[in-house]
């Protein structure tokens, strides 16, 4: 029989099968029974084994055994049954085989603090005992099975859920997947310290072995301003003085999520030069829209930005401005914006209604340069003074508009001759006003009342021939001296509501003009 089996099965299987058949054959011939296996280690609440042989008159007994203090052995020949925390069942599965199963009759949950219920585990190691199952005929033991039970308490949530719905947290305050290692519903996952199903007692078992990184719940990276992220490669030397120490829960990345959508963060301050993207030309102008030329380029006028004068700053529709640019002139200018020609400004501009308008240039010559030259710095030198002709001193634009379009553009270009002994402080002026008709609209300083920072409105009374009077709107001004501080060259600035200001100017006094009281007045 062994030879036939060897021909039908591989050698690694045939030897085990032959031994099994021979073992069963010996058990039957000798009228004995055996447990297979005869020794088990139980780590769960269920244990299954088989009793093989002549099981017709066999009874099974279960008891808890302890090794002898002298010999350390266990007597396998006792058929005394005891009451244990296990339930023993048997099922006939063949003429010579019985399935034997032991089921732990005990709740494996961990007992809570001050809990009086005894059907729980007071310690994490819930069951530690040795069991003996004896197969007996009468009071004589025919075979025995030893089971070493070492079972730990189950980690289950303290409060079972009422349904199978998963509550998604508010993503404004925490990310959608705050605990990726939480893999089992309503069960505490071992070493997953962010699992909400784990009680305080559960966490004490593995709190020193928490899963690290994003899988362990640390899904939000540390912010760039955190002092803990400083490295020698990418942190400047001033980083320790400006970094912030804050708890990881106060993380700006949590605000990137809102109702399932992501909000692209706006770039913060940077020492790098910004990359400006050109705006696409538009057909209809709106307030604040850039004005374009006929070849889809920005229409530019020198303006001030961040304390500096930009030579080519775009002009915004319906945005008036008036600026001054100060230049230390040491030689005659040769290029824009101080040296220009009328043809440089006669360009075609898109009118915002599908057509175009041409800039009408009007030249004016300024002979009194006191408003433009605020200082002359001369040194003793044999070099003759330089004369710079046709220097562009001012560019004043008037944009006439109607609806969403520009009807015409007029430019007054003021030029003059500047004499250079060595160097001159030249103040050039640039302005743009948008007129709907021939008059520039003057906005109120508040309605009703005044707004802080708006000009105070005044009026002058004119008496007419028919004993009637009219009030013309005007403003109240203070001196605004330029660099030399003289009253003769000073300008005026309006008084603003709610803002205190002090101003004045210098008046040269000599013995000659002290007698001219009208001049002093």
What does this protein structure show overall?
This protein is mainly beta. 8% of the residues lie in helices and 34% in strands. The chain contains 5 helices and 23 strands. A hairpin with a 5-residue loop joins strand 14 (348-350) and strand 15. Helix 1 (2-8) runs antiparallel to helix 2. It is rod-shaped, with a radius of gyration of 50 Å. Residues 160-261 form the Tectonic-1-3 N-terminal domain. One of its GO terms (cellular component) is MKS complex. Part of the tectonic-like complex (also named B9 complex).
Features:
521 residues; mainly beta; seven-stranded mixed β-sheet; four-stranded antiparallel β-sheet; 5 helices; rod-shaped; TCTN1-3_dom; glycoprotein; signal; TCTN1-3_N; cilium biogenesis/degradation
Tell me briefly what this model is.
The chain is 8% helix and 34% strand. With 521 residues, it is mainly β.
